[in-house]
């Protein structure tokens, strides 16, 4: 993959490759889009287009960067023959809620540890050293990192459903080991096994949901999984605080975590199927057909068949007779195809920025910070962080598909930047120094600055949760079907790497570069994140998973994607993607 390819300057061979992977990104589907333009309401949505786009709309088919005259297409070849994905059936909701139990486990297991560490005391045979506390905390992130690398492949081979069921078993084993732990290493082992479950769930639950969701509601349905995560963290904080004064209360908090995975396991086992996309990938067409009919009860037989045909064509993009060959081709395509590599670049970047802008430093250590600042019941105060995170995830749910991912990310990052700067300034005036596990406040007006810090943190968390905490988890929609699970696993592994790094270095940073320096560093990284979004993150709201691929073909198409999103908001899905194409000079001569 050359840099040229990433940024859209491509050789002919690259173009063929891209087109192959993204399924007629520059071929028949574009023709379909153009055909659709003929059945759209009397040209009203072309009003806003510039002349070049007008030329490309309805008259030309884009072949790479050249335009050729196209043949008219029968109306019956339009997407109207495919399932109309604009309704959410009961089964989709049930599947989404069931998959979101994985999100809940992700949140609960990363959330309960902060209170558990405070209340474990000597229960593991000794008083925990600072380093042992770090090992126990980090074991889950490490397990999640390892599992997120493997579970993409496993999910493609065995299916999303069985691997999610495997994660349930790991959650339960991990919890049992921790509940029974009487040594530090046993606790670490339990956390590691539980981390495997967290990693699988964090990767496959969003993939599962985005493969089922109707495009119009995909953003929202994936956020339901994020509700699970932030809700799980809130519940874990609350239970942890409630049980913290009870002897061995932390074991009860861990024990409670066994019930949601049991529920998910049973729901999958007895009632719920795998995604039609996966089944088609495996050639189980009649099963996929049956499930599509159930998911879209209003669809006709022909529409379902047509959707299956489209999914089959998408799969043909990935050659190979057995799983290993397909895996090899998948990995190769992920790195050598323009749209797939761009998707990889964007999704990994988004997950990195989600973590490196510092949010989890608050999630894991807010109690420590509030204690240092002088709050008496710091565990209770730190519930504010988890509660704000949850509440603003709910806000994101209501606005994501309306506002759009890109605008939401930018608004989120601007807010985070402002509040991080405020935090940094407030810490400067509070004049606090960390030594070992002690903090010394030097300011005479610590009360005022303490309040400012709380306000800045709430503002920061709210800004984070409304975009940055959720949008990166929409990663599945960026990848072509053939490499969706694999690509998502790279991005998820990036997330866990970031989480590991931040949790392992935050306290050290507070000591070595002071809180002011630490939050200023996060602010600097947030600024870089804004630049990243401005340059590389197109608006994919309202686009089908296949259309997202077209947007990433030949470049990032930032401005064009925004134009389409705006027009689709106004005129609906009939607005063809082809309005995005711009003929290069000399195209006029070809007409
Ligand atoms: O999206 C989630 C969510 O924002 C959680 O609160 C956070 O702890 C995770 O790291 C993140 O991936």
UniProtKB/TrEMBL annotation:
One GO term (biological process): myo-inositol import across plasma membrane
Catalytic activity: myo-inositol(out) + H(+)(out) = myo-inositol(in) + H(+)(in)
Gene3D superfamilies recorded: MFS general substrate transporter like domains (1.20.1250.20)
Lipid bilayer topology: Multi-pass membrane protein
Gene Ontology CC: membrane
Keyword Membrane appears in the UniProt entry: yes
Superkingdom assignment: Eukaryota
Ranges for domain Major facilitator superfamily (MFS) profile: 95-541
Compartments where located: Membrane
Entry's Gene Ontology molecular function annotations: myo-inositol:proton symporter activity
Keywords: Membrane, Transmembrane, Transmembrane helix, Transport
A Pfam family of this chain: Sugar_tr
Family: Belongs to the major facilitator superfamily. Sugar transporter (TC 2.A.1.1) family.
Name of the protein this chain belongs to: DEBR0S2_09538g1_1
């Amino acid at each position: 993959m050359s840099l040229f390819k990433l940024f859209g300057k491509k050789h002919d061979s690259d173009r063929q490759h891209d087109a192959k992977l993204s399924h007629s990104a520059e071929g028949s589907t574009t023709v379909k889009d153009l055909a659709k333009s003929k059945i759209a309401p009397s040209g009203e949505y072309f009003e806003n287009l510039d002349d070049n786009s007008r030329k490309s709309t309805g008259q030309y088919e884009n072949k790479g960067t050249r335009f050729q005259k196209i043949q008219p297409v029968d109306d019956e070849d339009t997407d109207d023959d495919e399932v109309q994905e604009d309704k959410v059936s009961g089964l989709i909701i049930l599947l989404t809620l069931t998959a979101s139990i994985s999100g809940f486990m992700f949140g609960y297991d990363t959330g309960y540890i902060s209170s558990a560490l405070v209340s474990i005391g000597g229960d593991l045979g000794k008083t925990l050293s600072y380093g042992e506390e770090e090992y126990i905390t980090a074991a889950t992130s490490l397990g999640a990192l390892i599992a997120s690398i493997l579970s993409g492949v496993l999910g493609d081979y065995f299916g999303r459903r069985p691997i999610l069921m495997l994660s349930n078993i790991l959650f339960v084993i991990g919890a049992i080991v921790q509940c029974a732990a009487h040594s530090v290493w046993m606790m670490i082992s339990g956390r590691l096994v539980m981390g495997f479950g967290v990693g699988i769930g964090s990767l496959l639950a969003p993939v599962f949901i985005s493969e089922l969701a109707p495009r119009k509601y995909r953003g929202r349905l994936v956020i339901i999984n994020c509700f699970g995560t932030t809700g799980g963290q809130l519940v874990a904080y609350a239970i942890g605080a409630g049980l913290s004064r009870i002897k061995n209360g932390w074991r009860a908090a861990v024990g409670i975590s066994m019930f949601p995975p049991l529920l998910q396991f049973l729901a999958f086992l007895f009632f719920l199927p795998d995604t039609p996309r996966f089944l088609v990938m495996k050639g189980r067409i009649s099963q996929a057909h049956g499930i599509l009919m159930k998911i879209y009860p209003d669809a006709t037989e022909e529409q379902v068949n047509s959707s299956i045909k489209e999914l089959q064509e998408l799969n043909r993009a990935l050659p190979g007779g057995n799983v290993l060959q397909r895996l090899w081709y998948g990995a190769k395509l992920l790195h050598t195809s323009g749209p797939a590599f761009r998707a990889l670049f964007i999704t990994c970047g988004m997950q990195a920025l989600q973590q490196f802008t510092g949010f989890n430093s608050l999630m894991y250590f807010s109690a420590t910070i509030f204690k240092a600042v002088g709050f008496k019941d710091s565990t209770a105060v730190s519930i504010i962080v988890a509660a704000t995170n949850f509440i603003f995830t709910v806000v994101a749910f209501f606005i994501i598909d309306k506002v759009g991912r890109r605008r939401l990310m930018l608004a989120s990052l601007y807010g985070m930047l402002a509040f991080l700067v405020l935090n940094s300034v407030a810490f400067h005036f509070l004049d606090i120094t960390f030594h070992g596990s002690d903090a010394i406040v030097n300011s005479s007006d610590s009360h005022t600055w303490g309040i400012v810090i709380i306000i800045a943190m709430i503002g920061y968390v709210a800004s984070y949760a409304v975009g940055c905490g959720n949008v990166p988890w929409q990663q599945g929609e960026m990848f072509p079907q053939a490499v969706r699970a694999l690509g998502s696993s790279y991005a998820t592994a990036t997330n866990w790497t970031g989480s590991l790094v931040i949790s392992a270095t935050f306290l050290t940073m507070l000591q070595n570069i002071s809180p002011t320096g630490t939050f200023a560093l996060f602010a600097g990284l947030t600024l870089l994140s804004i630049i990243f979004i401005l340059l590389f993150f197109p608006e994919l709201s309202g686009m089908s998973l296949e259309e997202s691929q077209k947007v990433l073909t030949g470049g990032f198409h930032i401005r064009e994607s925004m134009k389409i999103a705006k027009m689709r908001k106004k005129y609906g899905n009939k607005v063809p993607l082809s309005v995005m194409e711009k003929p290069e000079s000399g195209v006029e001569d070809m007409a």
